Amino acid sequence: MTRAVPTSPSAARPAAHRVHNPYAPLSETEPQPGTRWLKGNIHVHTREALDESISMDRIHGEDHDEVIRRSQAAPFHFDFVCTSVHPYLNNIELFSRGEQRDDFVVIPGREIQNDTIDDGGYLDGYFAGEHSKYLHVLSMGKVGGLSICAHPNFFETTRPREGGEWTQIKKTLLNPCARLAEMNIMGMEVYNGLSILEEHMGARPYAPHMAEPCWDDLLCEGVRCAGFAGNDEFYREQYVYENYAPLGFIMVAAALNEADILRNVKRNRFYASTGVMLADTPLAMSEQQGRYTLRVSAQGKVKWKAMVQRGMAPTGAGEPNAPQLIEITAPTAAAEWELELDGDWKYVRFQAESLDNSLHRAWLQPIYGPGWVDYKAL
Predict the structure, then answer these.
(1) Quick one: which of 10, 157, 234, 331 has the most CB atoms within 10 Å?
(2) Which of 352, 340, 351, 349 is nearest to 367 (CA)?
């Protein structure tokens, strides 16, 4: 067991909300029949005949049935995918075609690329503001769906563009225009397969940190943000996953239908992965007199790490306080690890790393602590 250094009691304040574990067992009446851990790719593009003007999808994507076939085959073995198309302003409501099969689910999706939204170019964009030019938003599910920020640092690492830095994307997410606010972004891609496949094209490497710093940066601002991993795949032959990059996918505890998958993703009952598989109960939590014990579990020995925000710390005379973000690592590789937290912690998130390949990881969703205050409430 690892015990984190507590925050000074003088810094503590009353809890703003009850600390919730999204992986806690559900009541017997709550899960849908057939609920199990499902493996899915949330980011794959198709060239289905929806709009011939979308050249990227037409040139690079595969058709609907071929995407399903490839997704079920090795090395993917997915239970579901969210396919998506790249619409322009004149067809902004365009989504890919969903499908429910006995053994597979296709969730309709759409990726709004603000930098190409004006018929392949950029005039004023769909999302307003100078910081939003290179914002890409991936939506999963046309009805009752959700949206995430796709590859938040792609235009800083893999395909550098002036104005595409994470600092610009962050400003957009913290101060969204009306259209972006309506989409209610719930997370970001912590891992994006295309970002690492084309890493050699960039000015700086995407690995080993991927978009983990972006994730913590937004969390430290008080923004609730789930972590996703996606392939960003067109199933192009020159990009053969596992030869060049790990598979990116999520594992969600749900029944095999679109509505239940989306419902449980929105409840954070999922984790993101590039190859590390977690236990059926990946995180257990207990609390006694303000002290929280969190136990994380994987299917085999891994390297565990936790990122904990304790609050704000002084940075120097005349400088604003900065988030006190602490990295805690397990003393040894193990299938399980316990961490104790007390005091005024704001959030903790756990990740696991393979002993054989440092790019194979799993990311659990953040646990928001007794000191958490939502950005919108500040």
Answers:
(1) 157
(2) 349
Asked if CATH classification 2.40.128 holds for the domain at 1-23+274-378, the reply, yes or no, is no
pTM confidence score? 0.93
- One-letter amino acid at 204 equals R
Q: What is the DSSP string of 48-78?
A: -TT-TT-HHHHHH-B-HHHHHHHHHSTTT--
Task: Find all residues with CB under 8 Å of 358, minimum gap 6, and list them.
Answer: 208
Q: Domain spans of the chain?
A: 1-23+274-378, 29-268
The encoded tokens of residue 47 equal 């060239």
> Quick one: angle between helices 166-174 and 212-219, nearest 10?
30
Q: How many helices (H) and strands (E) does the chain have?
A: 7, 19
| Residue 294 · residue 342 · CB < 8 Å | no
pLDDT score at 50: 58
Give the Cβ contact number of residue 284 at 10 Å: 17
pLDDT digits (tens, 9 = 90+) for 347-362: 999 999 999 999 999 9
**Can you say whether the dihedral through the CA atoms of 249, 21, 378, 212 is positive or negative?**
negative
- DSSP designation for 320: P
Residue whose C-alpha is closest to residue 364's, from 260, 285, 257: 285
Burial state string for 147-174 with b = 16 or more CB within 10 A and e = fewer than 16: bbbbbbbbbbbbbeeeebbbebbbebbe
Q: How confident is the model at residue 129 (pLDDT cuts 50, 70, 90)?
A: very high
Q: Measuring CA to CA, how many Å separate 19 from each of 218, 342, 363? A: 19, 12, 19
Q: What's the first-to-final CA gap in the chain, in angstroms?
A: 34
Query: Left if phi > 0, otherwise alpha if psi is -120 to 50, otherwise beta: which for 195?
Result: alpha
Average pLDDT of the segment spanning 93-108: 96
